[in-house]
Amino acid sequence: MTKLMKGRTGDWEVVIGLEVHAQATTKSKLFSGAATDFGAEPNTQVSLVDAAMPGMLPVLNELSVRQAVLTGLALKAKINLHSVFARKNYFYPDLPQGYQISQYEQPIVGAGEITVDLPDGETKTVGIERLHLEQDAGKSLHDQHPAQSYIDLNRAGVTLMEIVSRPDMRSSDEAAAYVEKLRSILRYIGSCDGNMQEGSMRADANVSVRRPGAPLGTRCEIKNVNSIRFLKQAIEYEAARQIEIIEDGGKIGQETRLFDAAKGETRSMRSKEDAHDYRYFPDPDLLPLDLDPGFVDRLKQSLPELPDEKKARFIADYALSPYDAGVLVAERETAEFFETVAKGRDAKLAANWVMSELFGRLNKADIALAKSPVTPEALGGLIGLIADNTISGRIAKDVFDEMFETGKDAAAIVEAKGLKQITDTGAIEAVVDRIVAGSPDNVAQYKGGNAKVIGWFVGQVMKETQGKANPKLVNDLLRKKLGG
Ligand code: ADP
Ligand code: MG
Known about the structure:
Layout: E1 5-7, E2 10-23, H1 62-74, E3 82-83, E4 85-89, E5 99-103, E6 112-117, E7 123-135, E8 139-141, E9 150-152, E10 159-165, H2 172-189, E11 201-210, E12 220-225, H3 228-247, E13 255-260, E14 265-271, E15 281-282, E16 289-290, H4 293-302, H5 307-318, H6 322-329, H7 332-342, H8 347-365, H9 376-387, H10 393-406, H11 410-417, H12 425-438, H13 440-447, H14 453-464, H15 471-482
Parallel strand pairs: 12-13
Antiparallel strand pairs: 1-2, 2-10, 2-11, 3-16, 4-5, 4-15, 6-7, 7-10, 8-9, 11-12, 13-14
Helix pairs in contact: 2-3, 5-6, 7-8, 7-9, 9-10, 12-14, 12-15, 14-15
The structure holds adenosine-5'-diphosphate and magnesium ion (MG).
């Protein structure tokens, strides 16, 4: 069911297509040997090619090609064995060549798709139109001098994979879920680190509105949105803006806009060029790229298990809910951590401990999973103690807290603190008898029909046994003694 937006004059359907620029993981640039490390001193990673000195020739980086093909394969896309680099001519102060080397009519990757997981648990397939390789531009710095702008060319020439979706998304939630899934896939295969804060992944959002079932409306493109939260805000603002204009009798002009995060609104940057304005033509400095089918096959063989397959396996093998499985597979490290914990144990219990207790503590302490003071083996050990009734789930939480703080092993903590659960019926019965005998008022209440009083009895027994009595035994014994 497509979600619609309500206008003054009726319902509107929002149509979204995304162009995601993902920086490929490479040591050097797309056409030069200069380094690509993030955060280096300005202009320390610039070769003569990147600075566009006359007579310099671009040399294609093989790793960039591998990353693009690997990504295409992970997106179930057609790999084009023959592709062509083209010059896209436009003036940018931080792009010294005066043109960007990109791919136009013949990109390296053609049509593919992504299965997107929506917040309501449904999935949706979003079409991929293409993926092409292109150079990034440098960066203009406007805040370093009162009257001048500085230019940093470190980023100029870095490899970008531009991944273009079909206009298949119908809400900001779907767009957000698409970017999340794409990011997850890129990180699984290691072709991009997916770091939106550092700009390794940026999205341009194309947004239009139409009456349900009508032809596509005119779109506006919001450039360079660098967080998922901003992407959602930008789309929602933009759709509402377009609806208002059309309902007031106006028309949408195709244009490029930018999102002002501080104000939460989109603003016009320039009217949008059409492709012919760029005067694309094949770059005469570069041969067409012809791939060996064996090269593509080998990359296909090397693909890891991807998030969708892993999710399906987690649901089938561990009987997890689709939601839990989705959370656990979003990052490869998380999935591996979980599988180590769950090995040979109750998988649902393992999933709960990883997702609520461990994630909760890690978030609170702002620690990454890779640095978790509780290793997956140690967490597995704790779950083992719950499963064999050595400790109760309640006590396990205290043990876990101590494991998290000290890095100690669960069994050692239980031993040192004498936390072993009391499963000796006789010992518990003695305590139960004493408490029942000592509170005739509560016994009378219980017998008079106030069933909730049992909670008070359980609490008393637990208090006396310092939480160590097996809860099920306590309940059974109390019901027997109280005649429930
Ligand atoms: P360009 O590169 O000039 O921006 P493309 O034709 O490559 O143009 O399209 C870019 C993006 O715009 C694609 O993601 C596509 O899905 C999306 N798009 C195209 N038409 C519409 C539309 N009417 N509404 C929303 N998105 C659209
Ligand atoms: Mg575009």
